[in-house]
């Protein structure tokens, strides 16, 4: 398929079930969803919205969001999902983020959650602000009045996560989206008659959004829980999978870690995860202990050894870029779809070459993210642009069918990636055909001529008993004299935020592991580190706050 069609969705006998941490809150059959979406599509047309125009969807997870999304997709209107501002306070982070999204996308309209918020956030000369209630109650559009999409038509716009200023707007075509959805269906063996998708990720995040597209494009049943429900009770995700027979789910590592930590505090002996077939783990780097600990804890609950699947992806390739195609042979650091390598950390940092770990030297354990999915090709390049050899670290470049048309430029049109290859900004290497991701180009620490990923320093800090996994962020800055200084922001219990001894102990861990000291260690209460919607640490944002004197 070269385009994505959603017109047969109503013929499916399945639908979407909406959940909170306790149970079902609403249900929406696909036939009813399509009928409502065709009615709203008619309303969009009556308000002057035309094929190819863009619409922002700052709507919370729920039936209204899916109706608005499907109405846009059926009409050939290009949706962009963004977080709904919680209120209209112009100085709030939510409103500033909304205005930044509106400036990046240049929409013709915005579909707001309610009339009061629509009125409060509208700007003179800007896009029309609508509500779903204004668009309902029209005669549903028949199939002959729906446009036939072309491969090069834009399907949706995805704002990149992790931006610290103006977000980048990745423009994805029907051909891009169709290629990635097709690859995901093939990789998962997804079948609407046997599978049930379950997710809790925010729908403005690429992983959450594409899980919805998978359901809408295949007719597979979908269980959808707002992320706040997961945060209130992380084990509810696993409970819903068990009770409702979920077979496919996905989350970043922090989701698996958080659910496991809550489960350890309050076990649930009755969980049955035997029907779960695929649990994708997407974010880089993926800590091997998160995978092994989760497997050890839930194997007795029926979790098969081949269910957890590390993968690599991004909005610029719709979603998935690489994943293991089949389980690996069992062995040391190899189990199911998980394969890890232990490499010499110093060699990796000093020379960019991968060598096996050796006794008496610091080792780095890195997880394979598998091989490119159908229609994508992957290259590792040196800073000079030359290709890297096997076991040589460089920047990951991706090309092929799923790679975006480009970021929207100042004129509102996509600017194609140079040579059709997207430079990801991620560092990795290939070994036996598999991709291993080891850091970010822009986040790399350069200390005394050595390239050191901040993840490595964070890993050392988090060996301290007072620091939980994932609760540190390390970055560097350069002063007027040209020196580079490394700072660690560490989340600790409230009673430890003024602990001078703890600062010294953290600094000693870094000195022992890397041979340099920290310029500063900022101890904060938990929740103080800025994160993306997928839980990744925003080191650049923390650097900005630190240099502005806003961290204490």
- In the sheet with the most strands, the strands line up as 2-1-10-9-11-12-13-14-18
Provide the structure class: alpha/beta
Globally, the shape reads globular
Major sheet, described briefly? 9 strands, mixed
Q: Give the percentage of residues in beta strands.
A: 25-35%
Percent of residues in helices comes to 25-40%
Stretches with pLDDT under 50, minimum 5 residues? none
Task: Average the pLDDT over all residues and give the rounded result.
Answer: 92
Radius of gyration: 23 Å
Amino-to-carboxy terminus distance: 54 Å
User: Counting H and I runs of at least 4 residues, what is the number of helices?
Assistant: 15
* Number of DSSP E strands: 29
What is this entry, summarized?
The protein is α/β, with parallel strands linked by helices and 552 residues long. It contains 15 helices and 29 strands. The protein is globular, with a radius of gyration of 23 Å.
Any overview of this molecule?
This protein is 29% helix and 26% strand. Helix 1 (30-46) packs across helix 2 (63-75). It has 552 residues and is of the alpha/beta class. It has 15 helices and 29 strands. The mean pLDDT is 92. Strand 5, helix 4 (115-121) and strand 6 form a beta-alpha-beta unit. The protein has a nine-stranded mixed β-sheet with strand order 2-1-10-9-11-12-13-14-18, with helices on both faces.
